[in-house]
Amino acid sequence: MNPRWIVTALLVLLLAGVCVQLGRWQLHRLDERKSRNEVTRSNLAAPPAPVAEIVGPDRVVGQQHDWRTVVVTGRYDAAKQVVIRYRNISDRPGFEIVTPLMLTDGTAILVDRGFLPRQGGELAPTSVPAVPSGEVTVTGRLRRSEQGGHTSGGVPVDGTARLINGPDFSKALDLSLYDGYVTVDRQEPAADSAFDGFPGPEIDDGPHFFYALQWFFFALMAIGGLFYFSRRDVQEDKVAEAGGSEPAELVSTDHSID
């Protein structure tokens, strides 16, 4: 029990405590993911319904609405179309084309019309399929507005953006938009064949359980290492003390003359 070992023990215990808390945090994220998966399964199985009936008057797509199938009818506003950059589907880079759909009540909702794979090293799609003229009926999946932390990727600049965010688009495009968007499953008139569709959601538990086990294992390693090295130091001290206390060997000198 000396200051060096006391400080070391406190630091190791602190480290072990942090690892335990990180493990508990991963288990908490696992519970959240399981709850979200249940909502997603329920929404995927639900029949299509008008968007106003599902979202409500606040027009905010929340987690409880994610992946719900909706039906919206209106007219595309091609003049306010936005190209979404840096997209990737099935390891293919490309672009998504988002166009506001003007509804009969004067509001609008963003519609992600589809994915265009990138051709070579192009920084923008060389050709974007035109929107259908006249009234369009879209059946698709509701998605929440994408969040980018403190980045401004949701604000369209020169007709392009990195994120699909209803409130940011609403300010930039001067439209009364839903907070969220719709990905197209079916469209009448039919969508252009140049568009690729979107994959469904990933419904699994993710890596959170195994991450939690790793953090708990690190905590055990820290405590085990403290015990091992402290025990070794004690044993070395005992050996050193035992060696120093042994009486010096007496050396006899015989000066007798035979």
TrEMBL record:
Its membrane topology: Multi-pass membrane protein
Transmembrane segments: 209-229
Annotated localization: Cell membrane; Membrane
Keyword list, A-Z: Cell membrane, Membrane, Transmembrane, Transmembrane helix
Main subcellular location of this protein, as a coarse class: membrane
InterPro entries according to UniProt: Surf1/Shy1, Surf1/Surf4
Domain of life: Bacteria
CDD domains xrefs: SURF1
Cellular component terms (Gene Ontology): plasma membrane
Family, as annotated: Belongs to the SURF1 family.
PANTHER family cross-referenced by the UniProt entry: SURFEIT LOCUS PROTEIN, SURFEIT LOCUS PROTEIN 1
Listed name of the protein: SURF1-like protein
Taxonomy of the source species: Bacteria, Bacillati, Actinomycetota, Actinomycetes, Propionibacteriales
